[in-house]
Design goal:
The complex is a heterodimer of chains A (110) and B (556).
Chain A: E1 2-8, E2 11-20, H1 25-38, E3 41-52, H2 54-70, E4 73-77, H3 81-89, E5 97-99, H4 102-107
Parallel strand pairs in A: 2-3, 3-4, 4-5
Antiparallel strand pairs in A: 1-2
Helix pairs in contact in A: 1-2
Chain B: H1 3-29, H2 33-48, E1 50-59, E2 62-69, E3 78-79, H3 85-92, E4 96-98, H4 110-115, E5 122-129, E6 132-142, H5 150-196, E7 207-212, E8 220-227, E9 231-239, H6 243-261, H7 267-281, E10 288-296, E11 301-307, E12 313-316, E13 319-322, E14 344-347, E15 352-356, H8 358-361, H9 372-383, H10 388-399, E16 411-417, E17 422-428, H11 434-446, H12 452-473, E18 481-488, E19 492-499, H13 519-530, E20 533-537, E21 545-552
Antiparallel strand pairs in B: 1-2, 1-6, 2-3, 4-5, 5-6, 7-16, 8-9, 9-10, 10-11, 11-14, 12-13, 12-15, 15-16, 17-18, 18-19, 19-21, 20-21
Helix pairs in contact in B: 1-2, 1-5, 2-5, 6-7, 11-12, 12-13
C-alpha cells in the first residue's frame, strides 16, 4: 500500500495505491484521521487500489462518520473495480459520496 | 604415313575408345565392383592381347591380388611392400613397360616358380585418382611372342584411370550407405530415448520438462515418477561426453532412477544407490551429474539431493535463489557416497523450482560470455509468469545460438511448481501473512480459467476469514499458526482454514451484521455474501477450529 496527498482548490486529495489489508489499514486510518482533524474537504482517490478488505473499508467508514459528526466533505473518487466490488458488497456504495474522477469530486458542492 | 596405315590406326583408336566407354559405363552401373573389375580385366587382356593379367589393390600396407585372368589364378596373393614391378608401379604412380623381365633387376620370379607360368614381359599401370593410390593392373606377355608397345601403354593407362575412378566412386557409395544405415540407427535410438522422457502434461500438472539433444541422441535426461501419497519423484541428469556412449549411460541411469525411485525412501538414498551401481560398472572417465527430488504435492515441499549438478533455482513471490549442493558427480568412486548423500528441503511457497543442465548455463550470451547460473536464475525470474509450455520453449530460444549455428550441447530444463489445483500451507497467524495467503490463493485460482470477479471474491473471503483468526481467535494470545488448504475442481473451490486457538463461538456465522459496521461483522458478511457455503467442521484432535468455505463454480 502507498499513500500520497496533495492539495488542490481547497481540497486535500489522498491517493491510495496497491493492496489495503489488515497489515496496512492502521496506517491508512491514521493518515485519514490526521487529515480529517485539520481539513474539512477530503477526497480519497481509489483508482489504483488493487485490493481492499473490511479493515480498509472500516477506516473509510470511520472518516465518513467523523465528517458526519463534525461537518465537512468526504468523497471517494475514481474507484477501481476491486474497491467498487467491496463497497457494493458492504452496501456502502449508497452511503458514501462517490465521484467518477477526482475532477468530478472537486466540483461537487464547489 | 601411308593412307592405309593411317586408316588402320584410326580404326584401332576407335576400338580403344569404344572399349574405354563400355568399361566406364560398366563401372558406373556396377553393384559389385570387384566382379566388374574381373570382367574388365578380361576385356583388357583380349584387347591388348596379353596372355595373363592380375589386378592388385592396396589392403593396409600390402598389395593383394583381387582378380586374375589367364592360366594361373593367384587371387589372394599378398605382396608386402618391397621390390617387384607392381610395387614400383604403385610407388612411382607411373606405368611400367618391361620388355624383357630378365633385364629388370626389380623383377622377381618367385610367383612364376609357384605357378609354372613364364613371365617374359610386363605392362603395369597404376590405379590411382589424383594422389590417392589404390593399386595396379599388371599384364603379362603379349601373345605370339610379341612385345607390349607404347600404344598398349597409353590404352592401359586410360583403362586403369577409368577403373580407379569407378573404384573410388564405389567405395564412397559404400561409405555413404554405411553412414545412412548408422543415421537410421541413431534416429531409432533417439526415438527410443524420447519415449523414455515423460509425456507433455497439462498446464496444471506440477512437473514439466523439455529436452533438446544437440545431436540425434542425448546425454541428458529428466523423469517424473508418481508415488503413493500424492508425491512425485523427479530427476534431471547430464552424462559426461556426448554421442552414443553418453546416450547409453544416460539410458542406464534413467532406468536405475525409475526403478529405485519406487523402492527407496528419498532422493539421497536414490543417488547413493545409483552411484554405487555406476561407480562399479561405468566406463573409465565417464560420470553423471544428477539431481533427484521428491515433491509432496499437498504441502509444496521439495526434498532435493544434488550430485555435482548445476544448482537449481527457486523462483517465488519474492525470491530468486540458487540452491547450491556440495557433492561430486555420480560414478566416480563408490566411497564418495557410501556414508551419506545430504538432502535439502525447499518449500515452494507457491513458486517454482527450475532445474537445468549445463547446456543452458554454458550457452553463449550475445556478448560471447556464458549465461552462467546467475544468468539463468535471472532468466527464470523473467520467464516465470509465462504459461508452462511457452516458458520451457522460451528457455531454449533465449539461450540458442543465432542461426545458422545450432546448440553444441544437449539442453534440458525442468520446472517443479507448487501443485496448482491444490494448496496446503502453514503461516504464522499475523497481519503480514495475509498478503502471502491472498497471493497464494490468487495464483492457484489463476491457473484455472475463472472469471476475474470470482477470483477477487474468493480471495476476499479467504482474507476476511484469516483476518478473523488473526484478530479474534488468537486475540490476547501469542500468535499461533494458521493452515490454509485450498482445492479446486470442475465443480467447486473449497477452502479450509485451521487455527490452533481456543474454540470460537460458531454462532457468529449465523447472522450477517450489516447494520453493525464493526470490522469483524463486515468481514463475516463478505464471506457469507461471496461463498456458497461457510461452516465450521469438527475441530482436529489437538484442538483449534476448522472453517470450511465452498464456492460452487465451474471452470470456464
Amino acid at each position: 500500500m502507498k499513500i500520497s496527498t496533495r492539495e488542490e482548490t481547497g481540497h486535500v486529495i489522498l491517493r491510495l495505491e496497491g493492496e489495503v489489508d489488515l497489515h496496512h489499514s492502521p496506517t491508512l486510518r491514521k493518515a485519514l484521521m490526521d487529515l480529517m482533524l485539520v481539513n474539512r474537504a477530503v477526497i480519497v482517490d481509489l483508482g489504483q487500489v488493487e485490493y481492499i478488505d473490511s479493515s480498509g473499508i472500516a477506516s473509510l467508514v470511520e472518516a465518513y462518520q467523523m465528517t458526519r459528526r463534525n461537518g465537512g466533505r468526504f468523497v471517494l473518487a475514481n474507484i477501481s473495480l476491486a474497491a467498487m466490488r467491496v463497497l457494493q458488497l458492504a452496501r456502502l456504495d449508497k452511503v458514501f459520496t462517490l465521484a467518477d474522477s477526482v475532477e468530478a469530486a472537486l466540483s461537487i458542492g464547489a | 604415313m601411308s593412307n592405309s596405315k593411317s586408316m588402320q590406326l584410326s580404326a584401332m583408336l576407335a576400338d580403344d575408345l569404344a572399349l574405354i566407354a563400355e568399361m566406364t559405363a560398366d563401372f558406373a552401373l556396377s553393384q559389385n565392383i570387384e566382379e566388374t573389375l574381373r570382367v574388365g580385366l578380361e576385356h583388357i587382356c583380349l584387347r591388348l592381347e596379353a596372355e595373363a593379367a592380375s589386378l592388385f589393390l592396396l589392403d593396409g600396407d600390402d598389395l593383394v591380388c583381387r582378380a586374375c585372368w589367364g592360366p594361373s589364378d593367384v587371387v589372394g596373393l599378398r605382396l608386402q611392400p618391397g621390390r617387384g614391378i607392381v610395387w614400383r608401379t604403385v610407388e612411382q604412380n607411373a606405368c611400367q613397360l618391361v620388355r624383357d623381365t630378365a633385364l629388370d633387376p626389380d623383377f622377381s620370379n618367385h610367383v612364376d616358380q609357384k605357378t609354372g607360368f613364364q613371365t617374359r614381359s610386363i605392362l603395369c599401370a597404376p590405379l590411382s585418382v589424383r594422389n590417392e593410390k589404390l593399386g595396379a593392373i599388371e599384364l603379362f606377355n603379349k601373345t605370339g611372342g610379341r612385345n607390349f608397345n607404347t600404344t598398349d601403354q597409353r590404352v592401359l593407362q586410360a583403362l586403369a584411370a577409368s577403373a580407379a575412378l569407378a573404384l573410388i566412386n564405389a567405395r564412397q557409395a559404400a561409405a555413404m550407405a554405411e553412414q545412412q544405415a548408422l543415421q537410421r540407427e541413431l534416429a531409432l535410438a533417439a526415438n527410443i530415448q524420447r519415449a523414455m522422457l515423460p509425456p507433455t502434461q497439462p498446464e496444471r500438472f506440477p512437473i514439466h520438462g523439455l529436452n533438446q539433444p544437440a545431436r540425434g541422441v542425448s546425454g541428458d535426461f529428466y523423469d517424473v515418477v508418481a508415488l503413493p501419497g500424492d508425491r512425485l519423484a523427479f530427476a534431471i541428469a547430464d552424462v559426461s561426453g556426448k554421442g552414443m556412449n553418453a546416450a547409453l549411460l544416460m539410458s542406464k541411469t534413467a532406468s536405475l532412477f525409475r526403478c529405485l525411485a519406487k523402492r527407496l525412501d528419498g532422493p539421497g538414498a536414490i543417488l547413493q544407490a545409483i552411484d554405487a551401481e555406476l561407480a562399479e560398472t561405468c566406463s573409465a572417465g565417464m560420470f553423471v551429474t544428477m539431481i533427484a527430488g521428491l515433491l509432496d504435492c499437498k504441502s509444496g515441499r521439495v526434498v532435493l539431493s544434488n550430485a555435482g549438478h548445476e544448482p537449481p533455482v527457486l523462483i517465488s513471490e519474492n525470491a530468486a535463489i540458487l540452491i547450491e549442493g556440495n557433492m561430486p558427480p555420480l560414478g566416480i568412486d563408490p566411497m564418495l557416497f557410501s556414508s551419506d548423500c545430504p538432502e535439502t528441503v525447499v518449500d515452494l511457497h507457491g513458486g517454482s523450482l527450475y532445474l537445468f543442465t549445463d547446456g543452458l548455463t554454458e550457452a553463449d550470451c550475445d556478448d560471447g560470455s556464458m549465461w552462467g547460473s546467475e544468468g539463468i536464475r535471472d532468466l527464470a525470474r523473467e520467464l516465470h509468469p509465462l504459461p508452462m509450455q511457452e516458458r520451457l520453449q522460451a528457455f531454449l530460444q533465449r539461450t540458442a545460438p543465432p542461426p545458422p549455428l545450432s546448440a553444441h550441447d544437449d539442453v534440458t530444463v525442468m520446472v517443479v511448481q507448487d501443485c496448482p489445483s491444490r494448496l496446503h500451507r502453514r503461516y504464522p497467524a499475523m497481519a503480514d501473512s495475509l498478503g502471502h495467503i491472498r497471493h497464494g490463493i490468487q495464483a492457484m485460482l489463476g491457473t484455472a480459467k475463472y472469471d476475474a470477479g470470482v477470483i477477487q471474491d474468493v480471495v476476499l473471503a479467504v482474507d476476511e476469514a484469516c483476518q478473523n483468526i488473526v484478530r479474534h481467535a488468537y486475540a490476547g494470545l501469542p500468535p499461533g499458526d494458521l493452515v490454509v488448504q485450498a482445492e479446486m475442481n470442475d465443480q467447486e473451490i473449497r477452502i479450509c482454514l485451521t487455527d490452533f486457538a481456543p474454540p470460537v463461538d460458531p454462532s457468529f456465522l449465523s447472522v450477517p451484521r450489516l447494520d453493525d459496521l464493526r470490522p469483524g461483522g463486515l468481514g463475516t458478511h463478505f464471506m457469507l455474501s461471496v461463498m456458497d457455503d461457510v461452516r465450521f467442521l469438527p475441530p482436529p484432535a489437538q484442538g483449534g477450529n476448522v472453517l470450511q468455505m465452498v464456492k460452487r463454480m465451474r471452470m470456464l
